[in-house]
Amino acid sequence: MEGTGPGQRRSAPGREEEWLGADLADGPWGEPARSASPTVHPGDPAVNARVRRTGPGDEPGMDYTHLGRSGLSVSRLCLGTMNFGPETSEEDSHAIMDRALDLGINFFDTANVYGWAKGEGITEQIVGRWFAQGAAGARRQ
Amino acid sequence: MIATKLYGSMSDWPNDTFLSARNIRRACDESLRRLQTDHLDLYQMHHVDRDTPWNEIWEAFDVLRTQGKVLYFGSSNHAGWHIAQGMEAARRRGSTGLVSEQSIYNLLTRDIELEVLPACQGYGLGVIPWSPLHGGLLGGIIRKTEQGKRRLAGRAKDALKENRKAIKAYEDLCDELGENPADVGLAWLLAQPGVTGPIIGPRTMEQLEGSLRALKVRLTRDVMTRLDEIFPGPGGPAPEAYAW
Fold it and tell me: Do B191 and A74 touch (CB under 8 A)?
């Protein structure tokens, strides 16, 4: 919706970008509230987000939105890594991360305890070795 | 961008867990070492730590941010009032606050609509649903088990027993729409106000590729209503869900 809050500040003319603000009060940096959008149909996939349908490469279709009220743009699918190690081999995990990046997913989530061998951080190590191999510039996305 | 979490126990020693200033400093350095990077884009508390004061948490987080080791902070498995308390504590200190909350959220588990989602919308946190298909239960489980393609275990097995009728109705609705249940389950989350995007946890390349379709599924108002009928949830935010 046509907000007056920070949702407007990055709108670039010509880009397919929508801001459909949820009813938000002051944010952590004290921004003014964004306007509510009561008329937005909840089934609209663009609801609540400044959804951008532009992405890198020739893979169409990834959508991006800001992470909460931050300036960080993240893909609307987040790659969870909990199966990397326990269920999925390191080689396959690396291939999945390569492909996720190709598909425009720039949001990878892990945790120090993943891998479930206490103290070892197996999953973080798998992701770390992928970063170390270069991983198509993954760390910059 | 990489997001990781701390809180869980990393040794049998009492300080290698939770959210003390000591563990925040140590856990972050260890994650940076394992991830072979110099900073985390998002650092999340994996669970609420009721025993550590918010001031201690924010002071330790502020140091990490000043050191350039972390850019943004988030919570996970926090109640709505924990988020409010944490954000107010951050505001008093001039700390950065939280940008996200990672909660279990799916058609079968809609508890966060009561307090967590409204708190996140009020404070400007993006909600990142984990277990978006409830361990595969919303991914066409009845059909898959009937065809011998999927064997059930753990969370999904118990939940299927309790929710078989609803899940059958859900799969029938998806058939009617000509969409895969997994895509509809993710599309429903993507359509919820306040949701940044679900966590997909693929075990295989096939699962990863399959999830992309969800971004293209458009659910009409009628379908959203029918999904509410099949999986009612708490009935909206508090207090209207149970009072007026």
Answer: no
Q: What is the ipTM of this complex?
A: 0.96
Q: Which residues make Cβ contacts (< 8 Å) with residue A15, sequence separation at least 6?
A: A52, A54
Interface of B with A in 143-182 (CB under 8 A): none
A44 three-class SS: coil
Residue of A nearest to B191 (CA): A45
The whole-angstrom separation of Cα B40 and Cα B5 is: 10
Q: DSSP readout, B1-29? A: -EEEEE-S-SSSSTTSSTT-HHHHHHHHH
Largest CA distance in chain B: 57
Chain A, nearest residue to B102 by Cα = A109
Please report the DSSP string for B91-146 in residue order: HHHT---EEEEEEE-BTTB-GGGTTHHHHHHHHTPEEEEESTTTTTTTTTHHHHHH
Is A114 annotated as catalytic? Answer: yes
CA B212 – CA B202 distance, rounded (Å): 12
Q: Which residues of A touch B2 (CB under 8 A)?
A: 108, 110, 127, 131, 139
Q: Answer whether A35's CB lies under 8 Å from A5's CB.
A: yes
Place of tokens 């809180």: B7
Give the three-state DSSP class for A45.
Answer: coil
CB contact under 8 A, B193 and A47: yes
Cα distance between residue B121 and residue A18, in whole Å:
18
**pLDDT tens for each residue of chain A, 141 residues long:** 333 333 333 333 333 333 333 333 343 444 433 333 333 333 344 444 445 555 555 455 799 999 999 999 999 999 999 999 999 999 999 999 999 999 999 999 999 999 999 999 999 999 999 999 986 566 666
**Residue A16 half-sphere exposure toward CB, CA atoms < 13 A:** 9
pTM exceeds 0.80 = yes
Which of B72, B120, B218 is closest, CB to CB, to A45? Answer: B218
